[in-house]
Design a protein that fits this description.
Strand order of the largest sheet: 2-1-3-4
Distance between the termini: 22 Å
Bound molecules: riboflavin
CATH topology: Rossmann fold
Order of helices and strands: EHEHEHEHEEH
Number of domains: 1
Helix content: 40-55%
Largest sheet: 4 strands, parallel
CATH class: Alpha Beta
Radius of gyration: 15 Å
Structural class: alpha/beta
Number of helices: 5
Length: 160
Amino acid sequence: MATEMHNLSDYDADKVPSGKGYKVGIVYAEWNSDITHALRDGAINTLINNGVNVEDIKTICVPGSFELIYGATQMVKSGKYDSVIAIGCVIRGDTPHFDYICEGVTAGLSRLNVMYDTPVIFGLITTNNLEQAQERCGGRLGNKGDECAVTALHMMDRVW
Ligand code: RBF
C-alpha cells in the first residue's frame, strides 16, 4: 500500500493490466461510511476505467470492518470472483478496540490469501483520526480504493 513516498494513486495508467472479462467482488464496511463509500467508489471507477464491465463488479456491504472477514470469505468461497477487495476504515479511539479490530481483520484476510486461490486485496485503512482517513479517500494522499483496484488488476493478470 501507499506511504507519502509511494503513492499508487499516481499509477501510470499504461502499465495497469486490462480487467476485461474479470469478475471482482467488493466487500465494504458501513462504519465510517463517508470514508468507505469514497474508497468503494474509487475502486469501482478504477476497475471500470481499466476495462472491467460494470456488471462484473459485485458490491456487498457489512456492518463493520470486523465483518469484512466473513464477507470476504463468503465471496471467495462462492467461486464467482477473480479477486475480492475488502474495504474498511478503523479510526483509533480511546480504547484498545482499534488494535483488536485491525489485528483481527489483518489476520483474517491474510488467512484467506493462504487458504484459497482468489487474491484478497487489503483495503482497510487504519488511522489515528478522521482527517488522516479523509486524506486517504480522495484527499492529499490519493484514494486507497483506487490503489486496491490497481492491485487487484495486477494480481488477476499474473500467471502463477
Ligand atoms: N468498525 C469499523 O469499521 N471501524 C471502526 O473504527 C470501528 N470502531 C469500533 C469501536 C468499538 C468500540 C466497537 C465496539 C466497534 C467498532 N467497530 C468499528 C465495529 C466492528 O468492526 C464490528 O462491526 C463490531 O465489533 C461487531 O462485530
